[in-house]
């Protein structure tokens, strides 16, 4: 399912959300300029599960693995990876920023992204393949949106072979189905001995969604103080 727009309009300008989208786009353009050196850039900025696991086993998080929990959110592996993530962030992020406030939204986004990466690290502790992409942080945004706007409607494109119907779907149904799909894919991937089948970090998606749902009440409480 491909979301096209939602029915909730922001009361404020979501400039942090716009900045995140712009930054991800700028980093991707920089990646394109690197040519064959992009592999080294991804290795340095992506989360390497084996490195993070080894660091945590020593009783503390070393600086470089810790920094990749943030830097990895702004690096993408291709146009479709980038555009798909930014579409979801554009549609759902503005409303969450509206409710949390600009500064809190940025902190929320980073915490969800870091938390989702750690879930994926736990799922594939010995992997040396770097994890990149904003999808974990965006999954946290989806978890927050699921609780904040369950009755919103999401205009959705559903690819069905040669047919592409556009339907109006309740947000709780769209996001609930999305989460269940990530969880099932994660279980199937784990059963097959690979936590990131096809290069997709399913457990980061599911973990980010849960992190967003758990963190949201805390952020809303602090906003009221």
Q: How does this structure look, described?
A:
Helices cover 66% and strands 7% of the residues. It has 225 residues and is mainly alpha-helical. It has one domain (2-218): Rhomboid-like (Rhomboid-like fold, Up-down Bundle). Strands 1-2-3 form a three-stranded antiparallel beta sheet. A hairpin with an 8-residue loop joins strand 2 and strand 3 (166-170). It is globular, with a radius of gyration of 17 Å. The chain starts with a strand and ends with a helix.
Summarize this entry quickly.
With 225 residues, this protein is mostly helical. It has nine helices and three strands, in the order βαααααααββαα. A hairpin with an 8-residue loop joins strand 2 and strand 3 (166-170).
Query: What share of the residues does DSSP label as strand, in percent?
Result: 5-15%
CATH architecture: Up-down Bundle
What value does the Rg take, in angstroms?
17 Å
Helical residue percent? 55-70%
Whole-number count of domains: 1
Number of strands: 3
Q: Give the low-pLDDT segments.
A: none
The CATH topology assignment is Rhomboid-like fold
Distance between the termini: 38 Å
- Sequence of secondary-structure elements: EHHHHHHHEEHH
Query: Could you say which structural class the secondary elements and strand pairing correspond to?
Result: mainly alpha
Strand order of the largest sheet: 1-2-3
Average of the residue pLDDT scores: 92
Number of alpha- plus pi-helical segments = 9
Describe the global form: globular
- Classified by CATH, the class is Mainly Alpha
- At the fourth CATH level, what is the homologous superfamily? Rhomboid-like
Largest sheet: 3 strands, antiparallel
């Amino acid at each position: 399912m491909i979301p096209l727009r939602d029915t909730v309009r922001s009361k404020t300008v979501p400039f942090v959300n716009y900045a995140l989208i712009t930054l991800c786009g700028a980093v991707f353009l920089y990646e394109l300029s690197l040519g064959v050196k992009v592999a080294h850039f991804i290795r340095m900025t992506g989360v390497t599960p084996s490195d993070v696991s080894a660091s945590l086993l020593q009783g503390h998080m070393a600086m470089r693995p810790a920094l990749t929990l943030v830097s990895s959110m702004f690096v993408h592996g291709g146009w479709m990876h980038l555009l798909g993530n930014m579409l979801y962030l554009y549609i759902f992020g503005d409303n969450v920023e509206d409710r949390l406030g600009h500064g809190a939204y940025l902190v929320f986004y980073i915490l969800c992204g870091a938390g989702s990466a750690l879930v994926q690290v736990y799922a594939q502790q010995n992997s040396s393949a770097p994890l990149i992409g904003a999808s974990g942080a965006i999954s946290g945004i989806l978890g927050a949106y699921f609780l904040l706007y369950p009755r919103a409607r999401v205009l959705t494109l559903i690819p069905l072979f040669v047919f592409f119907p556009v339907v109006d779907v309740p947000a709780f149904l769209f996001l609930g189905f999305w989460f269940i799909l990530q969880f099932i894919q994660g279980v199937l991937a784990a059963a097959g001995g690979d936590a990131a089948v096809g290069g997709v970090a399913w457990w980061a998606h599911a973990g980010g969604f849960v992190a967003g749902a758990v963190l949201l009440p805390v952020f809303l409480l602090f906003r009221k103080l």
